[in-house]
């Protein structure tokens, strides 16, 4: 904490700055804030106390009002917290009045954070906390760093605070994301990280809020389209601007002109149906539009991500042709990038390679790619290279002539490659294809001809190739178990499907799967809020496939219209979460994917050991979010911390869990 001598020195510095007619160069923002605090707000830089935080019910209601911003911020804050790996920092989300509504911090930093007022419900506007990251961002409306002595109050001068605004769709600051740290240095890097995360949150929230609206994504630089820094407009079916993100306001309304309610034609010279149609015809490459005022825009027009069955009448027929692929985009940025990449190679004779863990939906993605292409009326032929005996793969793929080998069908057989003529051939688990067959497949891809076993004449074939694997083909190439020339031939475009536990659109995906699994039920089955929280928090080691089976069982066993906690299977309620993908450095000997074992201290009796195991299980289920666990149990966070201390659960235990 700050000593009395440091307080006195800081007070002298504040008075010296605010009394000067000329401000020090490079400190205009801080001096401007200090003047506001001293003259307009009447604050004393030596003041020691701040008002108590709001009651839990009050700050939770504020968090609820943030809606999609809150939903989008929570997973991004967890990701940024792990990336920072700073035990002496707190990552906070505050609303437009500076009230902290969510906080992520290392358990060992809880006391220090509390002493500094970094708790839910605390107000960090300038009129309460003086010059600080959160409050000054709200006043200045742009990202900044307030470092140590730049704070107005002396009690905050041992902290560095990097903060960035999160804008709503009408140009106002909806929330502030900030990192407050006691660690020295790194202010510039902190600011860059917070700015990036704030833009990610803003984008996710905007897209979630407008999932049923048309979206225009654009920028003056082609490489920035479909990134977290592009401009986005939400439009009515008639092309009227409903909302815009902050970048769109900066690009289209730099002088503060009215933006909302105007027609998209005013900005890009073409109507919404024209932009949708041109986007489709371009293969979902960004359009380049040269405007009369010598302004060039790079632009993509997107149909609604949801309710596409009804959207067909609102746009052009050609614009809805890629519907199957587009429906896979439910708000996760990585999936949105995968969908966009796949759309760009539709009908361009470029092979698609889909990688990802087992159960992430690789075949679903492949079928959507086929259904969105001009080959949709042709066959979709799938073969799993890992499920067939090695001796049968060649005949299954390439077929055989009559009498080609003992036991062959007397009429011969067309192989999967020829069956896919005019359509799509999907080779699942391509990494399990034997080396000798890889050479034959490469030749077929190069010559576009197939010679069946026992045959002499090659048969021309026209197909789209899509492959999938859960294995690391690059590593297999290095090991010599997969041909390098085939790998580069298959990898025309590669997309990696994220694991379900890492997706930010889990809730939308759960809702969609539930709708599909409960089709035909009257009334339709819905998920209770508590049940949804359990499904959303579970780590899903089996990914989407496991989730679908669980939902199918829940629907079958549900007697009423709503699935509740009582319907949840024990493994979801009680089982500890699986390990994250990256094994923690503190446990290098642990087998990959194994659940970390934290032996109970020898000084605990059997009853205490059982209690410790139960608390550990709950902490893992909440991903060590103490506030969330306390809310569910109906106790204070201090109660949870006291119990953790009594049962010898410390921060080393959390680190072993990879959080």
Can you characterise this structure?
Helix content is 41%, strand content 14%. The longest helix is centred in the first third of the chain and has 23 residues. The two termini are 27 Å apart.
Give descriptors for this structure.
alpha/beta, 19 strands, globular, 5-stranded antiparallel beta sheet, 41% helix, 659 residues
Topology of helices and strands:
Elements: H1 4-18, H2 28-40, H3 56-65, H4 68-84, E1 89-95, E2 100-105, H5 110-115, H6 126-129, H7 133-140, E3 144-147, E4 160-167, E5 173-181, H8 187-209, E6 214-219, E7 231-235, E8 241-244, H9 246-252, H10 264-268, H11 272-281, E9 287-290, E10 296-302, H12 308-311, H13 323-326, H14 333-344, E11 352-355, H15 362-371, E12 380-384, H16 390-398, H17 416-419, E13 424-428, H18 435-447, E14 449-450, E15 459-460, E16 464-469, H19 473-479, H20 484-490, E17 493-496, H21 506-517, E18 526-527, H22 529-537, H23 543-557, E19 562-563, H24 570-573, H25 606-621, H26 626-633, H27 637-646, H28 651-656
Parallel strand pairs: 11-16, 11-17, 12-13, 13-16, 18-19
Antiparallel strand pairs: 1-2, 1-5, 3-4, 4-5, 6-7, 6-10, 7-8, 9-10, 14-15
Helix pairs in contact: 4-8, 21-23, 26-27
